[in-house]
Each structure stands twice: as structure tokens, then as C-alpha cells.
Design a protein that fits this description.
single chain; mainly alpha; two-stranded antiparallel sheet; 52% helix; elongated; disordered C terminus
Length: 264
């Protein structure tokens, strides 16, 4: 979402329009990214369409960070042999990065191209989501079998716990926690301009009487994100972690009500 302009008009500017940018500085700028500003994209060059796109960015941010991550955190903890403190740190990394980045991003972004900062933040968030999902694709398939002395990882069979259940988890999987840490840090850093520069940009470029309406729409969409994330995440929890490559029915007592049934 790169908007190569700093001043967008929502119809005619009302008298007393507030803007921190000298009038006309970005008046002839085009929608795009750098030299890539095709004419067929210029219909996006308005405050209404900026609001439309940033609403979806805010909704996706809430869906990923406050929805999907919170839903799968307990599954990640079991799947990758994490301690409770390590799983808690995964959730905290988003807030840590947001805290560190919010002030410098707000300060620097207010004195430069706000939409470009928001676009870069969106790309960083996308990179964070990609890194967060990598352990699922680069680890071996989870293959639970009967517990006992054969080196298996599944210790609960037909409701009976074997004597060797305490140390059966693969400790080598614990190192993948750094992917989750980095992914969440990038989520926090990428989201830092959304609720600072995004609101400021709307305030600068929308008629004063419409600012509260635009901001209200934006926050409403941002609040819908976590709700959608929890609903969709709850649905995905019914899918086995390695489906369809692995059929959980092949394993004894491996059903959705079993504590060793791992989800997506």
C-alpha cells in the first residue's frame, strides 16, 4: 500500500484545513511506489480509498497478532517443547517491539512521507508472519506412536500414562522458538505506524468534520480483526497439524479430545 503523496483531497478542502505539509508540496504526486505509478491505479488517490486499504491492513494485523497467535500459542508450546515462560515471551515480543519502535517511528514519520512508512510497516508485518510460520514447514512431520522404551514421543495411550512420559519430547525442537520471537518482533515493529501515522495522515487530509467518522471506521475494522482471527483460528484448531499428509486416525487414541492431538 504505497501512496506517493502526502496531501489527498476528500472533495474540496474546507476552510481551515489542517496540514503539517506546505500546500502543494505533494499536490501532483501519484499513487504508487517510486517510479511505479501506473495510470490505472490513480483511482486510489483519495482519502476514502486510503481509509479503505488501511482498514484492511488494521483488520489483518488484529487477526494475526491478537487472533491467530493467541489461539495457537498453547499448541506451539506443546509442539516445540517450549516452557510456559518461553511461550509467554512469544506473546510479549509484539508489545516489546511496539514499545521500542512507536516513538522513533512517530517522530521520524511525522517529518517525512507517512504513507511510505505505513507501506513499509505492512511489508515488515508480512515478513514477520512468514517467519512465524516457517517452523511448520521446515520441521519433520509429527509422528506420535505408542509410548514405552522404543523412543516414541506419545506417552498417553488409551488414557494411561507410561512411566517415561516426563522426558519424551524432542528437545531439539525448542530452538525453533527464535523463529517465533523474531516473527512477533517484526509484527510489533511493522504495526507501529498504523495507529500513529495512519491516524495523523487521516487527520491531515480529511475535512475536520469528517475526521471523527474516518477514525471511527478505522478503529471499528481494527477491532473486527481479532474477532475474525479467533473465529477462523477456532475452526483451524480442528485440523490435524500435518493434514492431509498424515491421517491422525492411523494412531491409537489420536482424536481431537486427546491432549497429544496437535493442530494447525
Amino acid at each position: 500500500m504505497g501512496v506517493e503523496m502526502e496531501q489527498m483531497n476528500d472533495g474540496e478542502n474546507a476552510e481551515g484545513h489542517r496540514s503539517h505539509v506546505p500546500k502543494g508540496k505533494y499536490e501532483d504526486a501519484l499513487f504508487g511506489w517510486g517510479a511505479c505509478a501506473p495510470s490505472w491505479l490513480q483511482w486510489n488517490r483519495s482519502a476514502k480509498w486510503f481509509l479503505f486499504w488501511i482498514c484492511w491492513v488494521g483488520a489483518l494485523q488484529g487477526m494475526i497478532v491478537n487472533g491467530f497467535v493467541n489461539v495457537v500459542i498453547t499448541t506451539v508450546e506443546k509442539r516445540f517443547a517450549l516452557s510456559s515462560s518461553e511461550a509467554g515471551l512469544i506473546a510479549s515480543c509484539y508489545d516489546i517491539a511496539s514499545l521500542v519502535c512507536a516513538l522513533p517511528v512517530s517522530y521520524l514519520g511525522a517529518r517525512s512521507h507517512k504513507p511510505r512508512w505505513i507501506a513499509i510497516g505492512t511489508l515488515i508485518m508480512g515478513l514477520g508472519a512468514f517467519i512465524f510460520s516457517l517452523p511448520h514447514f521446515i520441521t519433520d512431520e509429527y509422528e506420535p506412536v505408542r509410548g514405552g522404551g522404543n523412543g516414541s514421543k506419545l506417552c498417553l495411550v488409551d488414557g494411561n500414562v507410561t512411566d517415561s512420559c516426563g522426558d519424551q519430547q524432542d528437545a531439539s525442537l525448542n530452538s525453533y522458538k527464535y523463529f517465533f520471537y523474531l516473527g512477533q518482533l517484526l509484527h510489533g515493529a511493522g504495526a507501529s505506524p498504523f495507529y500513529t501515522l495512519g491516524i495523523a495522515f487521516l487527520d491531515d487530509n480529511v475535512r475536520p468534520k469528517l475526521v471523527s467518522l474516518y477514525v471511527g471506521i478505522y478503529y471499528t475494522m481494527a477491532l473486527l480483526g481479532p474477532a475474525l482471527g479467533y473465529m477462523l483460528g477456532g475452526f483451524l484448531l480442528g485440523i490435524y497439524v500435518d493434514a492431509p499428509n498424515v491421517d491422525p486416525a492411523e494412531y491409537v487414541s489420536l482424536r481431537t479430545n486427546n491432549s497429544f492431538f496437535f493442530y494447525k
